[in-house]
């Protein structure tokens, strides 16, 4: 018997996100839309934002324990793993980083990125 597949079209917009999670001290936010296979986030990190200062109090962990796969729209971010590895990402970069890292904005421009892997529980207040 042949398998029947149906096309399913889903449209969400960051112009009207389903949820907004704000970081400590007004240093940015994560806007979320939910798709069948999980949440996709648009993060805005303002100049001066640092995970260990502005999300750590929300997460309650020593470092970010989310895995991320994202695309940087604007601004620059430095990511440093617990093992000392580091990378800088900027506009046009597609990035992946595993759990166990800190990150902060480089320069005076907000960093805006789309994260389609690590958004489900990121900066979620419990």
Description:
The protein has a single domain (19-115), classed as Jelly Rolls (Sandwich), CATH 2.60.120.10. It has helices spanning 51-54, 56-59; strands spanning 19-22, 28-35, 38-45, 68-74, 76-81, 86-89, 94-97, 101-106, 111-115. The protein is mostly beta strands and 126 residues long. The termini are far apart. The chain has two helices and nine strands; from the N terminus they run βββααββββββ.
Number of strands: 9
Which runs of at least 5 residues are low in confidence (pLDDT < 50)? none
Q: Report the sheet with the most strands, covering strand number, pairing sense and barrel closure.
A: 6 strands, antiparallel
* Global shape: globular
* Structural domain count: 1
What is the CATH superfamily classification?
Answer: Jelly Rolls
Mean pLDDT: 93
- Level of helix content? under 10%
- CATH class category name: Mainly Beta
**What separation lies between the terminal Cα atoms?**
47 Å
- Class by SSE composition: mainly beta
Number of alpha- plus pi-helical segments: 2
Features:
six-stranded antiparallel sheet, 126 residues, 6% helix, mainly beta, three-stranded antiparallel sheet
